[in-house]
Design goal:
Mean pLDDT: 89
Number of helices: 5
Shape: elongated
Largest sheet: none
Oligomer: single chain
Structural class: mainly alpha
Low-confidence stretches: none
Distance between the termini: 97 Å
Radius of gyration: 24 Å
Number of strands: 0
């Protein structure tokens, strides 16, 4: 028996899709936000928080609120439940092969750490460029001589 498409089912399918989209956006912020912070330094704090949450969820196997929202919306839409979380259902097999989660985690860690190293380097360069160089400053002993 085919399920009848209702406004409610369509609405909850849309909610599930939005939850997946937010998941991808959050994952992108956590993994790539450090690179964006090279241009917009204020973004680094959001990226650090996102990366910390991602590590916590994966390392401690915590439930993610967006996964919960997606699962509830799918249930209300009459869709079958997903087995596993967001990474299992939407990332594994697309961005890395199934069964290679540890390698993907190492690559993600290297990506985040390299973005942080670049951020620190960019900040140092910016501070150096913004401060007057030593050669342009007058020493106190020479101020009176001309």
């Amino acid at each position: 028996m085919a399920s009848r498409l209702t406004v409610e089912a369509v609405f909850f399918e849309a909610v599930a899709s939005v939850a997946v989209g937010l998941h991808f956006a959050f994952l992108a912020l956590g993994l790539l936000g450090g690179f964006a912070a090279w241009r917009w330094p204020w973004l680094i704090w959001f990226q650090v928080a996102a990366a910390g949450w991602l590590v916590l969820v994966v390392a401690a196997n915590l439930p993610c609120p967006l996964t919960w929202a997606e699962d509830r919306a799918r249930a209300h839409a009459g869709l079958p439940p997903h087995v596993g979380g967001f990474l299992d259902n939407h990332v594994a097999g697309v961005f890395y092969p199934h069964g290679h989660e540890r390698a993907a985690q190492v690559v993600a860690m290297l990506l985040v750490l390299s973005s942080w190293a670049g951020f620190v380097s960019a900040r140092r360069r910016r501070r150096t460029a913004d401060s007057p160089s030593q050669s342009h400053r007058r020493s106190p002993g020479r101020a009176g001589r001309r």
